[in-house]
Each structure stands twice: as C-alpha cells, then as structure tokens.
Design a protein that fits this description.
alpha+beta; six-stranded mixed β-barrel; 25 helices; 25 strands; 16% strand; elongated
C-alpha cells in the first residue's frame, strides 16, 4: 500500500506538470464514461432491474390472439377472465385491469391524469402493500360497490402535498365523489401504465353474456413449482375444451369463445411484455456508447504513446537502476487509473445531466422510464469502467520497456533510431480501429436518420400543418344527457371558431396517428366473408363533428362529407382501406353497415369515402375506419357520451399563443374540466415516432463524437510521424523532392489508414445488419446511398485531418533540418 501511495503521488506530480495533457485526457474520458454510465442507467432500469414485486419472475401477462384479424396480442373479455380464473390450476391468482384517463378535481386545480381500474385480485397477485391505507376489497369491485380510489405516490405528493390525512378524504374523479382508501408506494406501476389514480374494476360474476367486449389485461401469479411451459401446456388443454364447456346464452352479444385456432390465449413473462421491442433499441444504444469509449481509449493510448516518447529516457534510467517491468507497469497502471477515475468522476456529472435531458425530451419513448436513475449498480458499473479504461490505455507505455528500447535510449541519438517502428505500427492499428468503429457508428446514425425522415414524410392522409389540438372529457356522471353534451361542444366550437386567426375548428374521438384499435364487429350489407377472411370487423370507429373533413384537410375520394342536414339521419363515411377490403372495386356509396351495439342499432348509409388516415402508428399499415356523425349520434341516442373528444383548430397561430383563449373558453363552460395536451399536430406526430427519434438523436451524437475522436487520432498520429521523419523529409527535399510529392506521401499514409478503417468498419456494420433491421423503416441496413454518404463523409474528415500535418511537412526547410542534425 505504501508503494501504491508513492506511485499515486508521483503520478499526480507528473500530471500537474502536464496540465494540458491531463485536461484533454480527463475530458475525453468524461465524455466516454459519462455516455456509457447514462446509457447503462437506461439498460439497468429497463432490462436488468427486476420488477418491484415479490418474486417478479412468477408474474405472467395474459392476453388473447385473433390470428384471422391480424391481432397477435389483444384484450380479454370479462367472461373470459372469470372462466380462466375458475379453470386454471397453474396460477394461484389472476387479476385484471384496464387503463385510461380520468378528470381529477385536485385541491390545487383540475387535472387530467392517467388512470387504471383493477380487481382486488390484481393487487393480491402483485403482492404489493400500499404506503398508507389499503387496497380494494372484493365488494368494492362488484356492481353498486362503494366509490373508492387509490392514489399514486407521485400524485399524492404533487396534488395533495404528501398529506397522510388524504386517506379517508373524498375527491371528485370523473364527476363522482370517491373516498381515497390508499396511497401506493413510490414508483408503483403495473405493465408500465403510469397510472396516477387507481379505481375498482367493477365486474359482475353473474354476467357471462357480454363476451364481445374485450378490454381487460390480465396478470397471473404462477403456483409454486409451476413453470411457464407447464402453464402453457395447461392452457392448450383448456383451449381445446373451452368452447364445449361454455353454454352461450341466446342473447349473448358478440360470441367469442376461446379456442385453439381463431381465439387463442397467450402467456408472456410480465417483464418481457413491458420491455418489448425497446430491448433491442436500448442494447443498440449501449453498444454505440461502448464503441465511443473504445475509440476514446484508442485515442488516449496514442496520446500516452506520444507522451511516453518524451519520457523514454526516464523509463530507461529507471530500468537500468533496477526497476523491473512489473514495477514500471504498476506505475503506468496507477497513472492510467488516476486519470480514468478523474474522468469517471466528471463523467458522473455528464451522466446526470444527460439523463435529465433524455427523460425531459423523451418521457414516454422508453418503458419503465420512471425508474431510470443513478443507483448503486450504476455507480459500480462506472467504477468497473473506470478501472478497465485505466488498465487499457495505461498499458500503452509498455512498448517502451523492451531491452532494445532501453539500450538505445541510453545512447546519444538513440531517439532517432528505428526502435519506434513497432510503436508506429501500434499507433496506425489504433487509428485504423478508431476509424472502423466510427464508420460503423456513422452508418448506424445515417440509417436511423433516414428512418426518422421516412417516418416524418409518411403520408398521414391529411394536412397536418397549421393544426393545433387539445382534448376534453365530459364525465358521464355529470353529463348524463345528450343535450348537455351537444350544448357544450356547440358553444365550445363556436367560441373557438370565432377566435381571431382560427380558420376552422372540429372535434373527433380518436386522434391520429397513434390510437388504440377498436376492432369492432360490424355487419356489412351484401358482404359474405370467405373462410380465410377478411371478416366483418372494422379496426377503428371515429366519431367526428361536421366540418371535420375541412378542418383536417382530408381529401374526399368519393361521395361527400357530413353535412348539417345529416344530424337526424343515419349516415357514415368510410376510408379507402375499408372500401377496398369489403367492396372490392365497387362503389360503396349508398351501401349500408350496421355497427356493433344494442339490438336496436340502426343500419347506416355510406355517403362518402375519405383518403386513408394513419391511426395505428406512422409505420403501420392503415386499418379499416368507419366515421360517425357526432351531432347525429347525439340527436338519435338519448344517453350517448363519446368520452374524450379531441378538438382541432386550423390556424397559423401557435399553441402557446392560443392557450389563454382555449383555457378561458373551456373554463367558462365548465370550470372543473382540464384542457389536456394542448399542442401542435406536428408535435403529436413527433411523439408518435419518439423512439426512432431518440435513437437517431443519441446515435447521431455518439457518431459525431466518434468522428471527432477518430479525426483527432488520425491528426495526432500523422503529426507525430511528420515530426519523427523531419530529417528524412528534409533529405528528400534537399535531393529534389518537391512539396507536392511530400504532400502526397504524407496524405497517402493517412488516407491509407482511413481506407483500412473504412473496410473494417463496413465489415462491422454489415455484421450488425440483423440487429439494425428491426429498428429501420423504409431503408435497408445495406442501403447504398447511406453507406456511400458515410464513406464520403469519413473521407472528407480524414482528408482534413491528414492535410494539416501533410501541409506542415511541406514547410520543412532542408537546410535548417540538416544543420540541426
């Protein structure tokens, strides 16, 4: 330990005598280690850290499948949940929940919060106890049960000031007074729903008729000793006998009985279900920052090699005085670790800043984002990275410890011998490696940039420029009659439409381009579904006000849009995909459809076909869509409440400039209603492609840093080589070599290294094709344009980096060089 302390003091004194070298090294390490620490924090929170429940590996996510409809993962109906719960022996308990949003009249202001409704069995399956109070009792999840609610810890802190007396008090949720019975622990969540308010999920065990209403998520806990494979085997047996074991009542709506072919159930580990496709994206980010750290290490190894050149006599003298290789190696390792620990300490600050910026910019692009933090595991990772980094580039000076190198260093003029040939080869290899890693990173960044551009340029089906949108929800408990709802929206749209700068205004139930699928059974008059489908099922039901087509800028393909005269009729519009799917080249105008609903639901006549609008995601195929007239439904259905409606305003004004007028218009009509997600439609689309944008931005930053480091490395090696060969260059010029030939000589050496690096980098990039392919849209991993552009970029940067030392070489004065020698 005494020796290590002396080595540390000696290393510190050496670094203080070279502040420029120390500063560059520490900053380079801070960027590399900080980026790795930040991204590892994401990997740790999203992938590695177990879910915050007892025995989380026993928790299974249960969903349904409809292969004929193209749904690999779908909701489960209440009767199916009850029947599965009664029949399964593999699971000790199975809970159900559903997610949504709710209006909350908090003590400070009205809020629109994420909500979830769960059964009592759900919390028993998770084995989570509330921080204060209790969870739901079974009677509260039955019809006519007590109106209760639980709050998330975060909402309790922000809206109720963390007051323990909040338990037992009442709060208005969706127009109903509910008693708060519990406060959940910090960061409690279920399936990444980000729920802030929990309500009892009311299910009537006696109601087995409504089999078509699929809206539940299930989570089950495996019995002790039961494996997932065993549970799947039991499920296959249950599915085989399920249809024959259920006596479906004659009045059942939407008969869907689970079976082995058309309506299967699937079991997935809960954590795997939450992480989903984000796992690949997160691991790609971790790989990218590892590349950056390796490039930084290579750069610093080159820097240490160059610095060691100035200390080679010191090493030789210490070796001649009896210092063995192990003793000198310990000195180098201490110096390297001292630098890497300083870089790691500064890198932690970089990581904290980077994580805050990442979460603020992309709060919903990654699952389990609430748990992304610098914990003890991340600190341990940073310590290991710091040690490994110090060891990697701390070994560079070992090249100066050979017997031949020591002997030559002690001789006069030994510095001009060829003893450094091996070290030069190492330097060139490090530069080629830097270029290779940079090429692979830049290709990945280019492909992700192309992906984001392709997603941004996808035809959305409407003119999304100059559109501002927000949402409001009229609680069914308060707005019990259609007349109230109609009066509210009539006045709201009229007020907003008369606002200066607003050209048109409308409202819709579902906001493109990313909304939940409906998948509602719909009778199509005159259509007989073939055995292989497509079946009479419509992906999206959309309820819109008059003027919707004009406000959104959706082209009419055939027929017409809704008119005021349709208010008391039964008319609908459809999209192009629905026309192609069910009418196969024939005109659908005048044909009739009957949507899912009560037995007295009327037939609706199709009056128009609209251009396809993206609803299920920018990168997904457009589904079938059926448009209903909002005013018509309010006039013909006495208890119709559409729930959340999204208002759109076509205007050149920004959401910020309209915020005051919009909040005032809603508040004057109902002070208890919050205005939700006031933003431009361009921002809505940006959110819809948040994960690709996140990847493109981060990989782009890492790629830029990699190019910079590789360019610095190339410049440093060539500059050192020029300085080392000044005498040779001087002799060449004295013998008649012109400046152009010297320039070509130096450039050829630098660009030769770049060429080797590009070839190696292309090999690395092609090896990563299979991983990248799942993250791309509209571009192949081997896209020639992207690869050609990257090669051109790398060549340009390399030419600039090589030109500077090459130009310096042409300025060598042979007379001065020879006189000095």
């Amino acid at each position: 330990m005494d020796g290590l302390v002396r080595d540390a003091r000696h290393a510190a004194r050496n670094l203080l005598r070279s502040p420029g070298f120390a500063l560059v090294t520490i900053l380079t390490l801070a960027l590399g280690i900080g980026a790795n620490t930040a991204i590892f924090s994401v990997v740790n929170a999203v992938i590695l850290r177990p879910l915050g429940y007892p025995q989380p590996d026993r928790l299974i996510y249960i969903s349904s499948q409809f292969p004929a409809l193209g749904f690999d993962q779908f909701w489960i109906s209440a009767p199916e949940y009850l029947e599965f719960q009664e029949r399964t022996r593999a699971f000790s308990i199975v809970g159900a929940f559903t997610t949504g949003q709710a209006n909350l009249t908090a003590p400070d202001r009205p809020r629109r919060v994420n909500s979830a409704a769960g059964t009592a069995d759900l919390f028993n399956a998770l084995r989570v106890n509330p921080l204060h109070g209790r969870t739901f009792d079974v009677p509260e999840t039955r019809p006519n049960g007590a109106l209760v609610a639980m709050l998330s810890y975060e909402l309790w802190q922000s809206a109720f000031g963390g007051n323990p007396q909040a338990v037992g008090t009442q709060v208005e949720i969706n127009g109903r007074r509910r008693t708060i019975v519990g406060i959940m622990p910090p960061r409690f969540d279920v399936a990444d729903s980000k729920a802030e308010v929990w309500l009892p999920l009311v299910i009537d065990p006696a109601d087995r008729q409504s089999r078509g209403g699929h809206f539940l998520y299930l989570i089950g806990r495996l019995n002790d000793g039961v494996t997932l494979d065993a549970a799947k085997a039991e499920l296959d047996t249950l599915l085989a006998g399920w249809p024959s074991s259920i006596a479906v009542p004659a009045n059942a709506t939407g008969v869907h009985t689970p079976d082995t072919k058309n309506h299967r159930l699937r079991l997935d580990p809960l954590q795997a279900q939450i992480v989903g496709s984000a796992k690949t994206a997160v691991l790609v980010l971790q790989g990218a920052v590892v590349f950056v750290l390796l490039i930084a290490c290579a750069n610093l190894a080159n820097l240490l090699l160059a610095r060691a050149e100035s200390r080679h006599k010191e090493f030789a003298v210490r070796s001649a005085l009896g210092a063995g290789r192990a003793r000198l190696l310990r000195q180098f390792m201490v110096e390297g670790c001292l630098l890497s620990f300083a870089g790691a300490a500064l890198g932690l600050g970089v990581a904290v800043f980077g994580l805050r910026a990442l979460i603020a910019a992309y709060p919903d692009s990654l699952p389990r984002s609430a748990g992304i933090t610098l914990d003890s595991g991340v600190f341990a990772f940073t310590l290991v990275v710091g040690l490994a980094t110090g060891a990697i580039f701390g070994l560079a000076p070992l090249l100066h410890l050979g017997a031949e190198a020591t002997s030559l260093a002690l001789k006069e003029g030994g510095q001009r011998t060829t003893a450094g040939a091996g070290r030069n080869r190492v330097r060139r290899a490090l530069v080629a490696g830097e270029v290779a890693l940079a090429v692979a990173l830049v290709i990945g960044a280019g492909l992700m940039l192309r992906t984001v551009l392709n997603l941004s340029n996808v035809d959305s089906g409407f003119n999304r420029g100059r559109l501002v949108t927000f949402a409001v929800n009229l609680p069914a408990a308060t707005y019990t009659k259609s007349e109230q709802i109609k009066a509210f929206y009539d006045r709201l749209l009229e007020r907003l439409g008369s606002t200066g700068g607003v050209q048109s205004v409308a409202a819709m139930s579902g906001l493109p381009p990313l909304r939940r699928v409906n998948a509602n059974d719909t009778d199509i008059e005159g259509y007989d579904a073939p055995p292989e489908g497509p079946f009479e099922n419509v992906d999206y039901y959309q309820t819109v006000t008059s003027g919707y087509v004009e406000a959104m800028g959706i082209p009419i393909v055939e027929g017409r849009a809704f008119q005021r005269t349709d208010a008391f009729g039964a008319t609908v519009m459809i999209n192009e995909t629905m026309a192609r799917t069910f009418y196969r080249g024939q005109s659908p105008i005048g044909r009739r459809v009957k949507p899912s609903g009560p037995a007295d639901t009327p037939w609706f006549t199709i009056v128009g076909v609209l251009k396809d609008v993206k609803q299920g995601g920018v990168d997904k195929k457009t589904g079938t869509e059926l448009y209903f007239n909002f005013e018509q439904l309010l006039s013909t259905r006495g208890n119709f409440n559409p729930g959340t409606m999204n208002v759109v305003l076509r205007t050149p004004l920004t959401p910020q400039s309209l915020a005051l007028q919009i909040h005032r218009a809603v508040s004057e009509l109902d002070p208890a209603l919050p205005v939700v997600k006031l933003q431009s439609m361009d921002d809505v689309f940006a959110e819809a492609i948040g994960r690709p944008r996140l990847l493109a931005q981060l990989i782009g930053i890492f790629a830029g840093l990699a190019i910079l480091l590789a360019a610095v490395g190339s410049y440093g090696v060539l500059a050192y080589m020029v300085a080392e060969r000044r005498r040779e260059i001087g002799i060449r010029m004295a013998l008649g070599a012109d400046r152009a030939s010297v320039l070509r000589m130096v450039l050829s050496q630098g660009l030769g290294l770049t060429l080797v690096g590009v070839v190696l980098g292309l090999a690395v990039a092609f090896a990563m094709n299979r991983v990248l392919a799942s993250l791309l849209f509209g571009v192949r991993p081997s896209d020639p344009a992207t690869i050609g552009g990257v090669i051109a970029l790398i060549a340009t940067v390399a030419l600039i980096a090589c030109y500077l030392p090459a130009r310096s070489a042409t300025r060598v004065d042979p007379m001065i060089v020879l006189r000095d020698e």
